Structure of SMC-Scp complex subunit ScpB:
Amino acid sequence: MAAELDPEGLRMVEALLFASADPLAASEIAARLPAGTNVTILLAELQRQYAARGVNLVPVAGKWAFRTAPDLAYLLQREAVELRKLSRAALETLAIIAYHQPVTRAEIEEIRGVSTNKGTLDVLLETGWIRMRGRRRTPGRPVTYGTTEGFLDHFGLEAIADLPGLEELKGAGLLDSAIPASFHVPLPDDSETLAPDEDPLEDGELFDFEDLAADGEEEPSR
């Protein structure tokens, strides 16, 4: 394998990844390199070279990016907490969207058992962790929400399927060990392809008609 490596190509890939503010797909990297360059081999070698360094080359949502080595994450903990301090309501809403996507505001409220303030969704949209996917084919055509590549990047997930499962959540103490046998953790789908019951958003459409109503304090929805 080492004989097939192109030292100059390796430097090019390293430079592209280092300079990019966002993760890059192998196809995006290949488009900027000389024709015939084996990007897969170069990425694998670069990942190997950085495995023991302070930053690692890691896959993020099917793309590649340099990230702080996991054992050094504590060095950035204070900055991360100050930058992304979310309310309990926002965290609960984010978790519901992550696991139940595509999901509407009404469905979020049904799961939480309380009304969801529009400001909560606005905060999550501003962080870049959730997005408006489309509109449900039901009366009122409510907006459906899902997570973004930025969500995967921030939480260090290669794919949405890497979210903690039932046993992991129980092991972390986030679920009661005596939960009903019928309880299950849903399988989220963050695919760009709309579900059969979703219509695409219209050009320039930013808000759900329902979300334009006056905001209020969160109250029990039942």
Notes: The first helix runs from residue 7 to 19.
